[in-house]
Write a structure and sequence with these properties.
The structure holds two protein chains of two kinds. Chain A is built from 18 helices and 20 strands. By secondary structure, chain A is α/β, with parallel strands linked by helices. In chain A, the strands form four sheets. In chain A, strands 6-7-8-3-9-10 form a six-stranded mixed β-sheet, sandwiched between helices. In chain A, strand 9 and strand 10 form a beta hairpin. Chain B is built from eight helices and no strands. Chain B starts with 18 loop residues before the first helix and ends with a helix. Classes of the chains: A alpha/beta, B mainly alpha.
Chain lengths: 488, 244
């Protein structure tokens, strides 16, 4: 179904080398292939080669031959390929074109100029197969990431291509949505479709994938059956830079004995007459690294926003060792590393960015503080670089450095490791631990069991805006979190 | 299956009007408000045109927008008259004059809001295709429809980030603008790029005739609205040519 022969590719204006070198593959019809490897290893580029984006959208140097269902990719137009290859991308929020679920599902079919009745038939079929009747008639902006991703799948599914390529489709999804996404892939598999999935999270594909191709530096490192691959020991997986959560065993359980406590009582937020957050009473030891877990829509972000003082309409009190802290004080003392870190980098150099808003120091003191923080966050050599020219992880560290410069005590993270490979996840967890050594209290909203296991020593589990369970790592809690992440 | 795709007529969400009618209404209101003097028959037409957006906003059950519109209009209408006598000439020219001009702009802007709020991207594309407007024109404009809510969403994210960093107070308006616009432009560019990739892989640039699942088409209410608009536009043209 898909054959690539000696494919080479180099992006235009890149400082790195070739993104793909000598990639030769032969993928049979009906195979489900998992493409893995570290960030920048070439798996996403390979996906873009198959769906024609490399030849027709990006600028760069292409060599070799790619054939998909008998068509030479470089010779057909993108719109002709749309009937043969369906693509689902990483970011749910930037892949819908119309604003409504119904019209979005038929968008591709309309472009193809299919007949009215035919489109309705396809629409009915795909809606029924994916069980998304309840999403019909809704505005796409009001859907969760998982729901958007399902609509995106339905939209390419309605075109009924023979090949599906998915580029890190689970990056922004919670555990529940990932399993629903797997159901969709299973439906496609049953219908004999050929499916390529580039992913960092591997576990959810254990029972669906037939074959695994691992990339490294633009080359194929190994190509094996899924059965063999999923039997590799964890150490070997980590060596390849792959994620391999197996059991949930917290490794970071440092507990401060005499820690002061942060106590939250009667925190409540109502929006459009609906209570979206209702936290009656919660005590957290100051200086902990708290994992906030729960499914999408459980109120995790809302809780974080209320706690750091961003939600103006939130009720409730927050006390630190008995002293009441007003929302205004909280916003001064807390910082949030957002999921889209681009939102919070404002200036034209790392140096300026970090010291932004620091005014109460002399020039000399500023200089000292800056170099100390840059050293700690391991970004000294990018001092004069433009923040936007850095990689995702470096940007994140610049944002954290800014928080340190402003003497923030509490730091929130909104899914800091979504879409990161093992090595980058480790880097994030190292910097979190470093901040913990400085005595900062940290809250991490995450769907990533490996991150929780690496660096959290406390957790909160949320359902429907309420806190169901919280505490440090005792046996029961470990077992609970393990089953929540479906790792048992 | 129950879906809007099976509708054959414009629904309540579209205000039972065809997008083309709404565009014509937009043009009519703006032309009259911006180009016409308050003389002759337009003494009567101009007040009517100011009321039209209010009626539409009320019908689409957006009372808050209607109230904003009302207040803004009344302020722009009365405040200059009340204060103009007490202020120096220069201030009147710059400030009061601009405020007075607002009375001419607000109705057109409200009609545009109404057009955006009640027309979906698909309907807009459908309407443009019926008028045989080429794809190179419709695609950018349809992306604009899609982008308004995205801009709002991204803007909120950036506002939060600025509050957390305590930057961008009104004391340094230039800095504030920079801190707001730089991240906004960067995220919008990235989203725009992703968006075009996703649309292109679903065949947006296919040269064939696009089929359309949207219920658009003219009904009685459209004909009435069009007739009224055309009459007003003809009157405007005559008035400009001969000064009735």
């Amino acid at each position: 179904m898909i054959t690539t022969h000696n494919v080479n590719y180099t992006y235009e204006n890149t400082i790195e080398g070739a993104a793909l070198t000598g990639v030769t593959t032969d993928i049979a019809e009906g195979q489900v292939v998992l493409l893995c490897g570290e960030s920048g290893s070439g798996k996403t580029t390979y996906i873009k080669a198959i769906n024609g984006l490399l030849s027709h959208y990006y600028e760069g140097n292409m060599g070799g031959e790619i054939m998909v269902s008998g068509k030479d990719i470089s010779k057909v137009h993108l719109y002709e390929l749309a009937r043969d290859v369906g693509s689902v991308f990483q970011n749910p929020k930037s892949q819908f074109y119309t604003l409504m679920t119904d019209t979005e599902i038929v968008f591709g079919c309309e472009n193809m100029g299919f007949k009215h009745d035919d489109i309705l038939k396809r629409f009915d079929k795909v809606v029924k197969a994916f069980k998304i009747e309840d999403l019909l008639g809704k505005n796409l902006y009001n859907l969760s990431g998982g729901e958007k991703q399902k609509v995106a799948c339905a939209s390419v599914g309605a075109l009924m291509p023979k090949v599906f390529v998915l580029d890190e489709p689970s990056s922004n999804l919670d555990i529940k949505s990932i399993h629903e996404l797997r159901d969709i892939i299973e439906i496609w598999k049953k219908n004999g479709k050929t499916i390529l999935i580039a992913e960092h999270r591997l576990n959810w594909l254990k029972d669906v994938a037939d074959r695994v191709i691992c990339f490294e530096d633009g080359k194929i490192k190994f190509d094996t059956t899924a059965k063999e691959f999923f039997d590799y020991p964890v150490e070997k997986m980590h060596e390849f830079g792959l994620r391999a959560p197996e059991k949930f065993e917290p490794k970071y359980s440092r507990v401060q004995d005499d820690a002061e406590s942060i106590s939250i009582s009667k925190m409540k937020l109502t929006k459009n007459k609906e209570t979206i957050l209702d936290v009656d009473n919660l005590e957290i030891p100051k200086g902990s690294v708290v994992a906030i877990v729960g499914n999408c829509g459980a109120g995790k972000s809302t809780f974080a926003r209320c706690l750091c003082g961003l939600e103006k309409k939130a009720e409730g009190t927050v006390k630190v060792s008995g002293r009441k802290i007003t929302p205004k004080e909280r916003i001064k003392k807390s910082y949030m590393v957002m999921q889209d870190v681009n939102h919070q980098l404002f200036t034209s150099s790392v140096e300026e960015e970090v010291m932004l808003g620091v005014t109460d120091l002399s020039e000399e003191e500023k200089e000292q503080k800056l170099s100390k923080i840059l050293e700690e966050m391991d970004i000294s050599k990018y001092k004069e670089a433009h923040p936007m020219s850095l990689s995702g992880g470096q940007k994140q560290r610049v944002a954290i450095a800014g928080a340190l410069a402003c003497n923030k005590d509490v730091i929130f993270y909104d899914e800091p490791t979504s879409g990161l490979d093992y090595r980058h996840m480790k880097e994030v967890s190292e910097s979190i631990k470093k901040l913990n050594d400085m005595g900062k209290t940290q809250f991490i909203i995450t769907h990533d069991p490996e991150l929780v296991q690496e660096c959290c020593n406390y957790f909160i589990y949320m359902v429907d805006g309420k806190i169901e369970l919280s505490g440090s790592w005792n046996k029961e809690n470990i077992r609970f979190v393990q089953s929540f992440f479906k790792l048992d | 299956m129950d879906t809007i795709l099976r509708n054959t007529k414009a629904s309540s969400r579209q205000l039972y009007l065809d997008p083309r009618t709404k565009i014509l209404l937009c043009i009519t209101v703006s032309t009259v408000m911006l180009a016409m003097d308050n003389t002759g028959i337009f003494v009567y037409i101009i007040p009517v045109m100011t009321i039209v957006p209010l009626i539409f906003l009320a019908i689409i059950k957006s009372p808050m927008t209607a109230v904003y519109y009302g207040i803004l209009y009344l302020v722009a209408f009365f405040v200059p008259k009340m204060i103009v006598a007490y202020l120096p000439q220069a201030v009147n020219l710059l400030f009061t004059g601009v405020l007075a001009t607002m009375t001419r702009l607000i109705p057109g802007m409200s009609m545009f809001y109404f057009l955006i709020a009640t027309t979906s991207v698909s309907e807009f594309i459908a309407a443009m295709e019926r008028m045989h407007i080429p794809k190179v024109m419709t695609v950018p404009v349809s992306v604009m429809f899609r982008f308004f809510p995205t801009i709002v969403e991204e803007y909120h994210g950036i506002t939060d980030a600025m509050r957390l960093r305590n930057v961008g107070s009104f004391r340094n308006p230039v800095d504030m603008l920079e801190y707001r616009l730089v991240p906004l432009m960067i995220s919008l560019t990235a989203i725009g790029n992703d968006l075009s990739i996703s649309a292109l892989t679903r065949g947006l640039d296919a040269p064939n005739k696009r089929s359309n699942m949207c219920a658009i088409g003219f009904n009685v209410q459209d004909y009435i609205a069009i007739a009224v608009s055309v009459v007003i536009l003809i009157l405007a043209a005559l008035s400009m040519a001969f000064g009735i």
